[in-house]
Amino acid sequence: MDRWLKGGHFNKKPVTEESLSTQSVEGRINDENGSQVVHRCNSNANGFINPIKKRKYNESYLEMGFSETNDCQPQCVICLKVLPNSSMYPGKLRRHFEKTHPDYEGKTTDYFKRKRTELLAVQNKIKTHVQTDNENALRDSYMVSYRIAQKGEALIF
């Protein structure tokens, strides 16, 4: 009874450097669906293991309308919504597809492949446009600095 009355807490163990030091172990395991799962286990000196899973994209997810982003996250090719990595289970992807897009349920894999190529084409076009703007801005900045240096005057605001 005294242990609850002293400060209102259970007896806690003091935190030491040994209990805070962790070691990370990583392994890859194939799931029952054939998708690859990366297991990271943080184990501390007390022997407790905290598993952290990071799922890998499987090409069969395209049948449900999902492609992979650069950050290894599933992206719906219809509504372009990017789901977290923890949603990369076939059941969760199927639930999003059936609840959000019931009109597309009878579509073939070729339709989703076409939508994915359209999405990638738009993304590449945006990247090219942004890169071109950045290069032009860099070139213009260089030319202004070059002309200031030629005149020998300091630019003071």
Q: Can you describe this structure?
A:
With 157 residues, this protein is an alpha+beta fold. The chain has two domains: 21-56; 61-148, no CATH class. It is 39% helix and 20% strand. It comes from Macrosiphum euphorbiae. This is Transposase.
Secondary structure topology:
Layout: H1 2-5, H2 17-20, E1 22-30, E2 36-44, E3 49-55, E4 66-68, E5 74-76, H3 90-100, H4 109-151
Antiparallel strand pairs: 1-2, 2-3, 4-5
Protein traits:
157 residues, alpha+beta, 2 domains, 3-stranded antiparallel beta sheet, two-stranded antiparallel ribbon
User: Could you report the average pLDDT, rounded to the nearest whole number?
Assistant: 77
Biggest β-sheet description? 3 strands, antiparallel
Secondary structure class reads: alpha+beta
* Multimer state: single chain
H-E string: HHEEEEEHH
Q: How far apart are the termini? A: 73 Å
Low-pLDDT runs? 18-26
Q: What sort of overall outline do the alpha carbons produce when their principal axes are compared?
A: elongated
Total tally of structural domains: 2
Beta-strand portion reads 15-25%
Give Rg in angstroms.
27 Å
Number of helices: 4
Share of helical residues: 25-40%
Protein name: Transposase
Organism: Macrosiphum euphorbiae
